[in-house]
Amino acid sequence: MPQIDIRSTVLTAVIIMGVAAIITLIFGINHLVKGRKIPFFGKRQARMRRGWRLIFITLLLIPLAWVMLNFGEPVVYVFITPSPTATQTPTITITPSITITPSITLTPNITDTPSITSTPSIPETVEKDFEAEVAPNPETLFSPITFAQKIDETWQPIDPDEEFTNPIGQLYGTFSYNNMAVGSQWTALWYWEGELVYFQTRPWMDGTGGYGYTNWDPPDENWRPGTYEVQIFVGTQWKVSGYFIVTGEVATSTGIPTSTQTQSPTPSKPPTQTGTPTRTPTRTPTVTPSETRWPTATNTITPVPTRRQ
């Protein structure tokens, strides 16, 4: 059964009252005209009163329709709370089967890297590591990359940002994707000021649509200040790029080498232990005189020096 909203109901009521006013006015004028032609006084007066009554009703219907048109809908909302329309579906952004608009494939709107003017491509050294045998889907779509130092259990970024301060540690680049061919080659390239510093490439085994990420966890001294770019490819076709900035001095991990150097003297303990065997030769001279005292029983009295010691 079709349903109409409150505004449509009010407009329908106004139209009905307008049509009723026109019909009533026509009948009223008709009664007045015909009443004047009746020769009998009583019937003539009755017809005239009926005509004026209809004209009076017409005069009431016209302002009533105007009031209904201007104030009917707000008055109805005072007594009836309008229900929200069911056209919006905010849960679409949560489901893995996100239909991403083609606008995602546009070039990034970040203007702080004017040196990148051509379409990105995969270096030959990275392409040599390709292992996939499944052809990529040309209709694969990726959302813009969001960067964060932590992600939750559903691979969503926690406190995402576009600028990070040293020391950084591990950094994630999260995204959503759709129409991905399982088994096709997937590659993520990490650049610092145009220099390739890290890459990931493997056959894709994570499904045709949903959420994913690329991450880099280098030593602290590898996070140099400057602009970083992350490029994502499916096969050899570039899909999307993301940018972030690292600020602050390079956090050198000097504490670890110094600790290993302080432990290096420990191998010098064996030389100190080698000095203890030198005491045994000092004991041998003391034993030899005791053996000369009993020259006739050298073999039988050998235990005697040990007892005296």
What would you note in describing this structure?
This protein has 309 residues and is an alpha+beta fold. The chain is 35% helix and 21% strand. The chain is built from seven helices and eleven strands. It has a five-stranded mixed β-sheet with strand order 5-11-10-7-8, with no helix packed on it. Strands 1, 2, 6 and 9 form a four-stranded antiparallel β-sheet that branches. Strands 3-4 form a two-stranded antiparallel ribbon. Helix 1 runs antiparallel to helix 2. The longest helix has 39 residues. It is rod-shaped, with a radius of gyration of 47 Å. It starts with 5 loop residues before the first helix and ends with a helix.
Give the averaged pLDDT, no decimals.
76
- Secondary-structure element order, N to C: HHHEEEEEEEEEEEHHHH
Straight-line N-to-C gap = 117 Å
Q: Describe the biggest sheet?
A: 5 strands, mixed
Class by helix and strand content?
alpha+beta
Radius of gyration from the alpha-carbon trace, in angstroms: 47 Å
Query: Please, how many helices?
Result: 7
Helix content: 25-40%
Strand element count: 11
Which quaternary structure do these chains form? single chain
Proportion of residues in extended strands: 15-25%
- Adjacency order of strands in the biggest sheet: 5-11-10-7-8
The general outline is rod-shaped
Low-confidence stretches: 254-309
SSE layout and pairing:
Blueprint: H1 6-35, H2 41-79, H3 124-127, E1 141-142, E2 146-148, E3 150-151, E4 157-158, E5 163-165, E6 171-178, E7 185-192, E8 195-203, E9 210-216, E10 226-234, E11 237-247, H4 255-263, H5 269-274, H6 279-293, H7 303-308
Helix pairs in contact: 1-2
